[in-house]
Amino acid sequence: MKTIILAAIRCSLKASPKKLLPLTLFGVAVMSLFSVQPVQAYSVTLEQVGSNVVATGSGAFNLTGLTFDGLGFLTLTGVTANVGNIYTGPNGGSLLDLYIGYTGPTSFGNGGPFGSNTGSGDVVGIQNNIGNMLLAVPHGYVSGAALSDSMTFNNATFASLGLTPGTYEWTWGTGLANQNFTLVIESAGVPDGGSTVSLLGFALLGLAALRRKLSC
Known about the structure:
This protein is of the alpha+beta class and 216 residues long. It has a domain at 43-185. It contains 4 helices and 13 strands. The chain has helices at residues 2-12, 17-32, 158-161, 196-214, and strands spanning 43-49, 52-59, 67-74, 78-80, 85-88, 94-100, 113-115, 118-121, 124-129, 132-138, 147-153, 166-171, 180-185. It has a 7-stranded antiparallel beta sheet, with no helix packed on it. The protein is globular and about 40 Å long.
């Protein structure tokens, strides 16, 4: 990639100002794909993968606006859709910091408690605990730190887990970045929205076209 970009830069030195402007603008757009971006707000996506339901979570929280509510200990991750509970990450026991002070859905389906079969990464959760909505993060978590986790329900479907497809969001604070937790339960057949890899492919094709146009 660096070779192609450098070649375009060398070529631009010979190009006329009229040709140089579109190449410069395109170069800025391409390089923006590789610029360092802030960690995005935390979200969890549940999807059907073969015969299993898989949850994948990533992102960060800004805890400003929440109130620390003590410590918790979790041994089994999973979902309880009818009361709006979801914990992602590995099983086996994790010490968590609990926070209150946010608002959002109190359910995302009609299913009862289901424990995951496997999981990995950080334990993160949302729990509607007798009227107190709890956000659970790894013990010692610092605002803005990246989190990543997953869990799998073997031989399961959205229907068997009582999950209703849709997007659910819990929020707090004054609307600053990352003051939210988003759960996405994907409907079957939802197309991929694209990725940096596909964008980069289009960028490379466009760069090659510009090089041919400049005849260098």
